[in-house]
């Protein structure tokens, strides 16, 4: 198959950062005048420095740490985001009512946000006496924080999350007027503020704590790791690994997105960064525009489920479930592989069906040169994983990962990088990593090299400036997540105050049981169990709600809301807690490529010049692994490895069945396996994939038996086909 010339409209791919700002509401920053820009950059740098320091030398008291974090985050949002999206691209001149180009209202809101956030840490010594009996000043400060927080969240992530929070607060206030099962005694505004503001069940709860303690550090690490070349190294390695095979650029997209996802917890950022290289290459090779965009966006959604950095939800699991982060990582490995395997198989069959070639040798980077040039950028990731899997806290692991990024960024001397890593290994082995005798000397070495680089020449000075800018950008990327987490605290607080979560659980399980009874009424007796059907329909309704909620709510907020409401429901039906959390998490991420609001797919479509809705539909089809796998590990928890009662036999049976089922379904969608598939063959293996993917040896064997006639015919057809060089 001959290459197609690159279309004129793709000769120049849009800037990834501009696309990220266009499709991700968390990145839509306002332009600032020089003086104001320096002030905001200084505050952002201070926020990053605060988190970097506390991660290495010890966190502050819980309420104080969260209060300082929130004061910075919410205050900065009013300086970084405009009140109206229409004003986002307009540089406003300074005037007496717009000091520094920012309105007096925004300055006042920023100050009010900082003051209300720091009020609770300030009265901490008396807090125990105020809970349940708030003073008028407590209520006033709490009301102020709730108002500014909702407005900050609206600016940072859009309307849906604040609307949900406002609706639930109205529900808490007007409880006696609610209908039927939703009726409750209600609460006064003072009691609502008391619960949301003064206790750890609301705004200052687990969600804000996780962002302030873990998430911020890993966002910062991801930005720094990308700046020192780790993202580029991953994409080049993916090209070396998969580029020469059929449909090369599409497979590079999958492997590159999987590797890049290890340091990026954002689907959109992953799409525009990797897609800027892979989407034009796929179109040039002959892939349809919508398919090229769908491949990249689907693979990129794997970033949020790929260890070791999986977005905020993974750290929330640690707090909610009381397990180690390494357990979450281990549980995530196989499901993530299933997602990428599903995309890979569809791309492979599509390439074989269309006769697409791989990339030529001259189009591929030299693996030796790639590793020789970029191996040092792997050291920060190695340092992070070393500390993390040695039993230290996730934020301490992030601290040393960030420190290694700084060293690699300013030095670029192999001997120094190896020496730093060797000392770190010795400190970890001795268990004295947090001791000042180790930490301070290593930091002084890093600081000395940074100063030396700054004073040496312009090129090295530029590296230092770039790393300082990464600290600023990392904080800017994290502030919207912080505001969303605090607003989710309002939602969780109302749920715990009113008990509405258990009422919703009762309604869902009752409805699922009725649907199960309706199915049993038309099936032969004894074929299915009522409890199994109830669980299936509960999972189905939960998945649909996760996807719908994810259309307007960030993944982290979606996860927290659904876990608060759905986890008790699934627990009532016998689902292990970590399995329930992963189920909700996976379907929340799936919303990024599910129309009508598929932000990652739309970002890819914009890069490819494709129809957004068609791209979203194709992306959802390509994500069949992510669609099926959550149901698989609910019925076969051994796939998550760390679940109670784990056995390798159950794991192998469940995983093998999942691989076989995904392969069959991929071939059915593509219309090709070893040779072109007839219509009846596609239908047969598509139906056979369902029992194959279901956990259990007998169901897997039954599915494979159903597919065996097609397998035999495919082998015979493949032998009669003449090999084509273009399909090598």
Automatic annotation (TrEMBL):
It is found in: Cell inner membrane. Residues 146-455 form the TRAP C4-dicarboxylate transport system permease DctM subunit domain. Keywords: Cell inner membrane, Cell membrane, Membrane, Transmembrane, Transmembrane helix, Transport. The chain crosses the membrane at residues 32-54, 66-83, 104-124, 159-182, 202-225, 325-349, 381-411, 418-451, 477-497, 504-527, 533-553, 560-587, 593-610, 622-642, 648-671, 683-707. It comes from the Bacteria. Its main location: membrane. Pfam families: DctM (PF06808). It is a multi-pass membrane protein. Part of the tripartite ATP-independent periplasmic (TRAP) transport system. This is TRAP transporter permease. It comes from Chelatococcus albus.
